[in-house]
Amino acid sequence: AVSMDGEIECWGNDENDEADPLQDNDWVQVDSGKDHSCALNWAGEIHCWGKDNNDRTDSHDGPFDTLHLGKEFTCGHTPGERPVCWGKDDEEQIYPPELPLEAMSAGDKHACGIDHTGALHCWGKEDDDRIEPPGGVFTLIAVGGNHACALDTDGQLQCWGKSNHDQTTPPTAP
User: How far apart are alpha carbons 42 and 19 in whole angstroms?
Assistant: First the structure.
């Protein structure tokens, strides 16, 4: 978590120093993957720590406005630009589409984004239809481990991907 004064607080398993954050007070966002964490500072720079196999904790030139961590990969993103992803590449999860995205989110071994028309684009692991989003115009995206959900312009939540625990069946509004 990032405190109001920009400091990072981490807890939990620290086997790979993933709960041992950078000591600074210039942070605006923090995210965690399987065994690594990253933070974004006011200058748009991403700094990572924890397990560094597959170069997932490498820093990349920004500036970025947001960061998104998958299980073993990291993405930096600025709305209106193509995301930059790095780390483990066993399912092509570090290769976003060759187009600018307005928003994005990362999951286990896949990620999804929304382009300027509101269309969804997903990349990475192909099982369970997780990279086969529905058509329509969307405003928000959230990617979980093996599924994703997006909010369309009518306020309807649409989900897809693995649904072994009904995670792609959103509740109906009262």
Answer: 21
pLDDT, position 90? 93
- Of 63, 62, 58, 3, nearest in space to 28 by CA: 3
- pLDDT of 103 strictly over 70: yes
Q: Is the CA virtual torsion 87, 33, 141, 126 positive or negative?
A: positive
User: Is the model's pLDDT at 22 over the cut of 70?
Assistant: no
- Give the number of other Cβ atoms within 10 Å of residue 141's Cβ: 22
Per-residue pLDDT at 111: 97
Per-residue pLDDT of 72-99, as tens digits, reads 999 999 999 999 999 999 999 999 999 9
Residue with tokens 């490498």: 58
Determine which helix (DSSP H) or strand (DSSP E) holds 23, and give its type and residue range.
none
User: Is 149:159 a contact under the CB 8 Å cutoff?
Assistant: yes
Buried b (16+ CB within 10 A) or exposed e, 50-86: bbeebebbeeeebebebbbbbbbbbbbbbeeeebbbb
Non-local CB neighbours of 112 within 8 Å, separated by 6+ positions: 104, 105, 120, 121, 122, 123, 131, 133, 141, 143, 148, 150
Which long-range CB contacts under 8 A does 157-161 form with residues at least 24 apart? Answer: 158/134, 160/129, 160/130, 160/132, 160/133, 160/134, 161/128, 161/129, 161/130
